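Quick start: what a row looks like.
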Amino acid sequence: MGVHKKLASVLGATALAVSGIAVNVATAGTAAAASCDHVSASNISNGVVVVVGGATAYKEPGSACTAVMSMAPGHNLNAWCYTINQYGNQWTRVNEGWIYNGHLALKSGTVKHC
């Protein structure tokens, strides 16, 4: 009977490990979906930003979201407002979509929180 108890323990531990992996995969999928939830934005600022080093605009403020277009350095954009996503990264809404602030520099005016 000692062998049966050991086998049951090993199988139980394996089942827990496998279920843990499934939970982690589901959590990762949920996090990606949450980062692409719609964020309301209005054109409430008078800021103009310039693209630094190239940038991609996204439908929502997260790089896991749908890309809309790419822009070359030096491109001037009207900044509507900014938000901070669930990862603590600041994104600015422009006419073309959402752009991560690490790819932008303020050229003039101010950019308000959405």
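That is the whole record. Residues 84 and 90 are 4 Å apart (CA to CA). The first helix runs from residue 2 to 35.
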